[in-house]
Amino acid sequence: MNPELFLQLDRVIHEKGRLAIMAALAASPELSFTELRDTLGMTDGNLTSHIRTLQEEGFVSVAKSFQNNRPLTSCSLTKTGRKAFGEYIALLEQIVRQNKP
Amino acid sequence: MNPELFLQLDRVIHEKGRLAIMAALAASPELSFTELRDTLGMTDGNLTSHIRTLQEEGFVSVAKSFQNNRPLTSCSLTKTGRKAFGEYIALLEQIVRQNKP
């Protein structure tokens, strides 16, 4: 086994909640805060906190606009975020390959 | 995407350090504390703390004996631990499959 693989897993993406957010955003050009929250079954507070961490890391960008006179918050992966998520998944793939029974 | 997959990831195994320990133990019938520590490059304190958590979860068993008059601590996966690790890896495999570009 190669212990380096585990050390290389991105600490920010590895957290289960953030991993789910990154995976949801990787599958869409963008998602509204409400869509993300409902898809993942998270509380507002939990999602807000994870999105802030992902923003600070440069992985997610957040845009505020209006739709039918109501505020709309849209989240999407940045180029950096998409690259980091791709690398994270590639590492998981190696971990799976080395650890399959 | 299926958000259930992420929720199902075992919280105890998912932590990077413990994941590395479980993977190392899965590859051997047993490893001494020293072998684990040196393979994974962990501090004594860090490894002790993770092993205790894995013991409490019933995933790892620890046996103390003597070898050449020196105390020897051996760690191994329990049957429960081996099953939980197998399920964890199977979930990772599904996550990888759903998220490959």
Search tags:
homodimer, about 100 residues, alpha+beta, Arc Repressor Mutant, subunit A, 3-stranded antiparallel sheet, 3 strands
Describe this protein's structure.
The structure is a homodimer of 101-residue chains. In chain A, a hairpin with a 2-residue loop joins strand 2 and strand 3. The two termini of chain A are 13 Å apart. Helices cover 61% and strands 18% of the residues of chain A. The model of chain A has no long low-confidence stretch (mean pLDDT 95). The longest helix of chain A is centred in the last third of the chain and has 21 residues, at 79-99. Chain A has 6 helices and 3 strands; from the N terminus they run αααβααββα. By secondary structure, chain A is α+β, with helices and mostly antiparallel strands. Chain A has a single domain (4-93), classed as Orthogonal Bundle (Arc Repressor Mutant, subunit A). Chain A has a 3-stranded antiparallel beta sheet with strand order 1-3-2.
